[in-house]
TrEMBL record:
SUPFAM superfamilies per UniProt: RNI-like
Domain of life: Eukaryota
Protein name as annotated: Protein zer-1
InterPro entries: LRR_dom_sf, LRR_Zer-1, Zyg-11_UBL_adapter
Protein source organism: Vespula squamosa
Domain Zer-1-like leucine-rich repeats region: 194-337
Length: 420
């Protein structure tokens, strides 16, 4: 399967650490080599030193792995001097940094900022982003934090540091193309304020938001090509949801997968999936894992099936996708779907994530790797089952998958146990 081979690099996790890796590790374990600690513990770069962006990015990467890691704000103060240090792309996971460090980082006019599971951040972090956003194209807040308060309209309170409702926006990031916000708790009527002024967005991820969504605010993000709504409750009024997202005619990727069984159950699933596919003509990637949208598996012919297709037995075992027999999806996520959809024979997709065989499981692991921890744990268990009880054909890729999962989620107990 060529597509699966493309997901892995042959040299990944192979061989000893490079000399460069060892140098960065040594420096981040001994920060006195490049910096001086001040009276309150905050560090400043030693005089005469200057580092380009490529080296600064590595410092941040290896700091997060350091066994002698100190207070995160003290470390990030090294980058206060924007003439001696350079930053463009910053990715930080499970750190104790505060809003002050976000301000320090954003003064570098970043193009990409990703902050995952940084629980000390508040709404003021967004203000620091807004103040230096002219180059920002990608902004990610995964995991739980308070960067988005539970109610935006509470900004009218005199005690609130930010008055979103009065000024009419949350983000002032005119060039932003990608936005990911995890665990947002605001009611749906406030999403119009949350997304105000972001008409240039092409990628939006609202995974794990607490409120059900019908996506009534579609007109605020008309240029979306990718929409991820993992673990978002969209089945309360599925007809309204489908009608709304079908206004996003440029959409090429849609993810409505679920790890919660109840949220994945739709009335008239075949009809819902058919309307999604027909309403989004540019769609090439669809993830409906954990739902019943694949139906029960009764083969169904599209209305325009011709005699030649009947002769070739061109059927579709997922009724809602019958219209894609002649235009198969590039990717279809079926992991955890009802009625074992991934085990059916005639599926109009080139690459499938599921649990029917080793290839499907490895693809599912790749899809779940970064921000679907609940599903990743289950996928690793399936992978172990293949290794333990079946003939594992892709041993090297399976090992890389396990190592990557354990490295990316060091604090996820169940993933660490499954990996071992």
């Amino acid at each position: 399967m060529a597509e699966l081979d493309d997901l892995y690099h042959s040299d990944q996790y192979l061989g000893p650490e490079t000399l460069t890796d060892l140098c960065f590790k040594l420096i981040c374990d001994n920060l006195d080599i490049i910096s001086v600690k001040g009276k309150h513990g905050h560090r400043t770069l030693r005089k005469g030193l200057a580092f380009p962006a490529e080296i600064c990015h590595k410092f941040i990467e290896y700091m997060q792995r350091s066994e002698t890691r100190e207070n995160d704000d003290c470390f990030f103060s090294i980058f206060k001097d924007t003439t001696a240090t350079r930053l463009k792309h910053v990715k930080i996971i499970s750190c104790s940094l505060t809003d002050a460090s976000v301000q320090t980082l954003m003064k570098h006019k970043l193009t990409d900022l990703e902050l995952t599971n940084c629980t000390n951040l508040t709404v003021l972090s967004i203000e620091h982003v807004n103040a230096n956003s002219e180059n920002l194209r990608s902004l990610v807040f995964h995991g739980t934090s308070m960067v988005i308060p539970s109610r935006l309209t509470l900004g009218t309170d005199e005690n609130s540091p930010v008055k979103h409702y009065e000024r009419g926006y949350v983000f002032k990031t005119p060039n932003l193309r990608r936005l990911a916000l995890g665990y947002v708790g605001i009611p749906e009527r406030e999403y119009s304020l949350l997304l105000a002024g972001l008409t240039n967005l092409t990628h939006l991820d609202l995974s794990n938001c607490f409120e059900l969504l019908n996506f009534e605010f579609y007109d605020h993000v008309p240029n979306l090509v990718s929409l991820t709504l993992y673990n978002v409750k969209v089945n309360s009024d599925p007809i309204a949801f489908v009608n709304n997202i079908c206004h996003l005619t440029k959409l090429r990727h849609l993810d409505i997968s679920q790890s919660n069984f109840k949220q994945g159950q739709f009335e008239h699933p075949n009809r819902i999936l058919r309307r999604i596919v027909l309403g989004l003509p540019e769609l090439v990637s669809l993830d409906i894992g954990g739902t019943n949208l694949a139906g029960r598996g009764v083969a169904e012919r599209p209305l325009d099936t011709v005699l030649e297709d009947l002769t070739n037995n061109a059927l579709c075992d997922i009724p809602g996708l019958a219209s894609r027999i002649h235009k198969p999806l590039q990717f279809l996520g079926l992991y955890g779907t009802a009625h074992a959809a991934c085990k059916r024979h005639d599926i109009p997709a080139k690459v499938i994530a599921g649990d029917a065989n080793e290839d499907q499981i490895l693809i599912a692991a790749h899809v779940c790797m970064n921000n679907k921890q609940e599903l990743l744990q289950k996928v690793l268990s399936d992978l172990y089952h293949v290794f333990r009880y079946e003939n594992c054909q892709r041993m090297d890729q399976a090992l890389r998958t396990v190592l990557e999962a354990m490295e990316k989620h060091p604090y996820q107990k169940h993933i660490q146990i499954s990996g071992r």
